[in-house]
Amino acid sequence: MSEERGAQALVAGLLAGIVALAACSPSSEFASSGPAVSSERFVPSTWNFDRDAVGSLPSGATIFTGTWTVRIESGAPSSPNALCQTASAEFPAVQLSSDVHADMAVSAQFKPISGRTDQAAGVLLRIQDSRNYYIVRANALEGNVVIFKYVNGQRSEIKSGSINVASGAWQLLRGEAVGTTLRGFVGDKLVVESKDATFREGRAGLWTKADSVTCFDDVMLGPVGSP
């Protein structure tokens, strides 16, 4: 009888361990969060920069820092123009328009061209002003996507996820903000997800870091998910 009870206790212990491991699995966060769908619906805005004059800033855009100009870029997804950041600054950033939304998805085709310190590309969500916004950033030198918040001119990391980011190639970066949920994608792959309640609404933009020379094309601001 004691052997039978011992076996039952062993099985129970193993089952408890399996349940505990499943609860701690890194993938459980994404599995439990489900698809993010915005309750806010609006007509998407797009920028392919092909109607903007070469050497200019896109109509309606505001530079926070860095040197942002439209230029002819060979191989751009929507030929011929792209918006490129070519200066070295701490955090080059540009706001694309004055439209304010709460839930938003900002996507962009980007190409990290060069940079010894960084080869970064970012989309900005819920911009308040030049010193306050969320960043979803991909970096070809680090091989990751990171969600940051920039509060009163001070950047802090919320969460990061690893993924290969190709240098010298066009690829898609997308950031989403729905309620307090923030997500970062490369292509269709969800790389990082977290929650933060610092900013509830704001505008959209683009971002790089340090000496990154990065070009952007086919930028879209729209609602998240399907109606």
Structural class: mainly beta
Q: Note the quaternary state here.
A: single chain
Q: What Rg is obtained from the alpha carbons, in whole angstroms?
A: 21 Å
**H/E element sequence:** HHEEEEEEEEEEEEEEE
For this structure, what is the CATH homologous superfamily of the largest domain?
Exo-inulinase, domain 1
For the record, the CATH architecture of the largest domain stands as Sandwich
Amount of beta strand = 35-45%
| Sheet with most strands | 8 strands, antiparallel
Q: What percent of the residues sit in helical stretches (DSSP H or I)?
A: 10-25%
How many structural domains? 2
Structure overview:
This protein is mostly beta strands. The chain folds into two domains: 33 residues; 186 residues, Exo-inulinase, domain 1 (Jelly Rolls), CATH 2.60.120. 12% of the residues lie in helices and 45% in strands.
